[in-house]
Structures are given as structure tokens and as C-alpha cells.
Inverse folding.
């Protein structure tokens, strides 16, 4: 197949739950002429055939066969395969959008980033919340947080249990916080425990930054409710972002208020909701066509994973401490 003008030819590797949605978004963009959606590969060939047929695309019998026909790929397999498949795609000269987390370990992520730089290929990491309309709208709001509180709670998903809740859910907020604070991490203290699966299902981390900001981050996949929220507290008010509703609330001291009679005014920004995954893939395709750096680079994915590993190590140390003290009744 020959590339038509500058239109990017794209494919998806791994069409399970999330990969199938990637395929849908590529197909939607293809219908507008923004991309050529060539096809998919999955180890489950029946699944690949089903998703390909539903999205007017081809089913490929191997990863290499798909790579030979495309310019760019989404990798939406289980995390354990991100590094190997990412390297195969990069070494074949293809641009890559890899789902979060970028790889299983920071060491793998460093190698992947280095390989992409050497090959001059685009490497974007699927930290979806960067494309959330509320997060994008925050770019026009001045802020200097001294404390951040993030909550990401979900009922048990019965999927994505190949990784713990830190890599499954918390890493979204880790990436957002690192991007907001723009300071080096000074220390991290974290706790977590398995509840349903054999990996940590609920976790809390307290991240201290060199600039003095502190972030308290909670993630749970065994909650009775679904919460996606982050709050930025400043000396002159606070900002609340509801990821799910795509809302921003800004609370400031009311005009004329005093210490004797404090009052708060709340402003809700008018934000047009949008499909975050569609915008993520649209942005990726645009970067591939223009050869411009992605919004969420491989380096961003590496930084988030390094912080996640530090959280995991802290959780393990604290769990050992509790275990060594025994159970008290």
C-alpha cells in the first residue's frame, strides 16, 4: 500500500476493551478524511476479525504484516507487551501511541524513549486526561497550588488487573500533577493494599515537591462510587476539576469579604465537552503528519512511571512494616 499524499495510514495493535475503542476513533476520523485507518492485529484472531469488520478495516495475521502497511500505530495491549511491541514498531520506523503506562518498568521506558529519539519517530503516551476539556481549559487560568488533592475511585472493573491500581488508575493523576506543578519530587510516602485482586486495589500517596507543593493522591478500584476529581488549593482560593463532568469550579474570596466575615464566590467555567480519546488520537495523527512533538511525550510517560514506581516501593516498605508488627486485636 502506498501512502496517499500526506494522509497518515494508521493501525491498532491489541483490540481488547480499550483497543476496540481506539479502532472506533480511528474509523471516525477516517470518515472525515483525517486519516487512513488500515487495520488491526490481535492475538485473538476472531476478536481482530470482529473489530476490523465493525470499523471497515483489515485484519492482519501478524504484527509485522500490519507494520508493513502503516505509518503509525496505537498499542493497546496489556502493559507487559508495551515495550516489546513499541520497540518493534519504532525499529520499523513507525510512529507510536502507546497506552498508559508507557511500559512495565522505568528502565524499559528509558530504552523506548531513547529508541524513538534515535529513529526520529513520534512516541506519544496515552495519558488521556491531558485531552480532557476541563484540563485543557485550565491552561487559561492562573494558578500556583500549595496543596493538591486528587481522587480517582471506581467499582471493581474485572479488567486491567494485570497491573495494580497505581498503574491502572493513579498514574493518570500522577501525570496531571507533574505537569501542573512543574517541580522535582522531593519525597513520596504511600500506602496501599489488595482487596479483591492479588495486586494493590486501593492506594494513597503523599508527594512532596521541591517547590513546597504537596499532593495527596488516592486511587481505588473497589469503591462503591465513581469519582474523578482534582483540587488545587492556593493562598487565595482553590480550583476544582471534575474530570468526568468536564467542569472547572473556581472559588475565590468574595469582593468586600474580610477576616471578620469571610465569604467565597464560586465561578463555573463554561466548557464545551469533548471526546478525550478522539482528541488524543486526532492530536497524535496531527503530530505524525506535521512531525511535531506530542502533547504527552515518551519522556512524560517515563516521569509518571518513575513516580509510580517510587509510590509502589513506598507501599511495599510500609506493608512490610505493618506485617512485621503483626495484627493487633
Amino acid at each position: 500500500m502506498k501512502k496517499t499524499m500526506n494522509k497518515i495510514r494508521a493501525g491498532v495493535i491489541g483490540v481488547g476493551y480499550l483497543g476496540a475503542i481506539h479502532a472506533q476513533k480511528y474509523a471516525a476520523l477516517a470518515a472525515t478524511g483525517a486519516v487512513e485507518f488500515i487495520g488491526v492485529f490481535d492475538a485473538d484472531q476472531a476478536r481482530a476479525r470482529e473489530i476490523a469488520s465493525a470499523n471497515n478495516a483489515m485484519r492482519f495475521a501478524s504484527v509485522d504484516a500490519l507494520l508493513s502497511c502503516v505509518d503509525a500505530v496505537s498499542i493497546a495491549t496489556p502493559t507487559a507487551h508495551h515495550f516489546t511491541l513499541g520497540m518493534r514498531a519504532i525499529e520499523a520506523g513507525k510512529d507510536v501511541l502507546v497506552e498508559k503506562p508507557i511500559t512495565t518498568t522505568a528502565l524499559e521506558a528509558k530504552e523506548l524513549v531513547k529508541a524513538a529519539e534515535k529513529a526520529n519517530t513520534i512516541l506519544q503516551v496515552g495519558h488521556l486526561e491531558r485531552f480532557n476539556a476541563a484540563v485543557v481549559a485550565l491552561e487559561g487560568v492562573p494558578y500556583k497550588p500549595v496543596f493538591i488533592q486528587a481522587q480517582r475511585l471506581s467499582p471493581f472493573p474485572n479488567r486491567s488487573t494485570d497491573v495494580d491500581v497505581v498503574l491502572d488508575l493513579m498514574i493518570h493523576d500522577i501525570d496531571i500533577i507533574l505537569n501542573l506543578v512543574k517541580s522535582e519530587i522531593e519525597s513520596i510516602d504511600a500506602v496501599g493494599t489488595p482487596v479483591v485482586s492479588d495486586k494493590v486495589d486501593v492506594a494513597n500517596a503523599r508527594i512532596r515537591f521541591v517547590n513546597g507543593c504537596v499532593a495527596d493522591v488516592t486511587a481505588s478500584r473497589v469503591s462503591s462510587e465513581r469519582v474523578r476529581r482534582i483540587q488545587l488549593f492556593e493562598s487565595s482560593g482553590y480550583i476544582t476539576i471534575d474530570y468526568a463532568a468536564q467542569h472547572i469550579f473556581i472559588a475565590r474570596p468574595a469582593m468586600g469579604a474580610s477576616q471578620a466575615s469571610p465569604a467565597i464566590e464560586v465561578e463555573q467555567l463554561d466548557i464545551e465537552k469533548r471526546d478525550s480519546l478522539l482528541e488524543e488520537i486526532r492530536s497524535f495523527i496531527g503530530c505524525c503528519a506535521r512531525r511535531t512533538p506530542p502533547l504527552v511525550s515518551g519522556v512524560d510517560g517515563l516521569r509518571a512511571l518513575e513516580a509510580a514506581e517510587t509510590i509502589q516501593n513506598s507501599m511495599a516498605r510500609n506493608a512490610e512494616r505493618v506485617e512485621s508488627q503483626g495484627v493487633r486485636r
Q: What stands out?
A: The longest helix spans residues 298-325. Confidence is low (pLDDT under 50) at residues 1-5. Residues 38 and 154 are 34 Å apart (CA to CA).
